[in-house]
Amino acid sequence: MNVSRDGGEYRWALPSVLLGDGEGRPVKRSTRDWVVDTAMFLVAAALTVLTVPDLEKFPQPVQVTEQVVGALACVAVWLRRRYPVVLSLALTLLSSGLLLVGGAAMVALFTVAVHRPFKISGFALLANLITALPYSYFRPDAVMGPTLTSVTAIGLGLMVWTWGMLVRARRQLVWSLRKQADGAADEARRLERERIAREMHDVLAHRLSILSLHAGALEFRKDAPPDEVAKAAAAIRDSAHQALEDLRGVIGVLRHGQGAAPSDTAVPERPQPTLADLADLVAECRRAGMDVTLRLPELDETPQSLGRNAYRIVQEALTNARKHADGAPVTVAVGGRPGDGLSVEVRNPALARPGPRIPGQVLTGIPGAGAGLIGLTERAELSGGRLEHGRRADGDFVVRAWLPWTP
Q1: Which of 107, 261, 274, 307 counts the most CB atoms within 10 A of its CB?
Q2: Which of the listed CATH numbers 3.30.565.10, 3.40.50.1000, 3.20.20.60, 3.30.70.1450 matches domain 190-403?
Q3: Beta strand pairing status for 9-13 and 292-295?
Q4: Which residues form a coiled coil (predicted)?
């Protein structure tokens, strides 16, 4: 114990290692806490009442003292949440000489075992076991005698302490499982947001690059015929509309993930692209002025996720070709079969080949985030495949992917 002088008064305090964190702090009880505390009070009171007949052999003053102190000990049980360690030690010391304090002391020991770590509850248990010896010697049971009385008291203390430790271990296990579940939910939300970010990068980069192509054509060909200007303007309008639709869908998903009201989040997901949509993607690029050759043989019906991943790889590769190899012809080759996997290759010269430009082949410095190929690699690896990219000896830039195709 420590002694400190404060304002001319001496104050005694137990070491903090024995008190534990939270000792003496105000307690806000929930409905469940009130029910449990009431049950603990009733248990202490019941044990006290059951031991009252054992006082008949003692003088009347001793019986009155026992009854008053026992009643006060039962009332003190209501302080078990705010002062568990202090209450347990005080009641343990009183129980070494008083009979009717034993029930409240057991409740206090149980509370310490539940709410404090082993280094603190173990000390409380040790104090309880030590005080059982003088009680058994000075006030032994008439039938059991001092030895059997001390063994019974020690066994009861160990049983109550063990019960409290089991309750504490169960609570810690439940807390740990809840924490793991919360962590898993957070991880799932993070992965979902990363998936949405990849989808938005693939979709918006393609849409905006097409839009930039047509806008660059209008800027380059200021004397273009009215029908070409109208066609480019229509393409810009369609690309902007599609980009807004994609953005709206993703915002709807994000709002749903943040717990918005169901009426505000009833945004249906747009159909995901598959291999069957590659022809439309290539046709859109051709209308924007790209020279794209598609080699897509007849394939068995592919799983939806496989087709979507292949489509996104081709889409991002075409977007990069528009950014970095303006005017160069691009070859897209897709092939495979169940069991062997699906292969995707997009090839284009690393630099644009010289030659006349046509409207729609003008790029006005489309910026890049530098994450497209990294995202494609991650997409392929997450699906169990692989992706490689780079410039080859013949000068062509190649994006080649292999994706597993389970029969």
Answers
A1: 107
A2: 3.30.565.10
A3: unpaired
A4: none
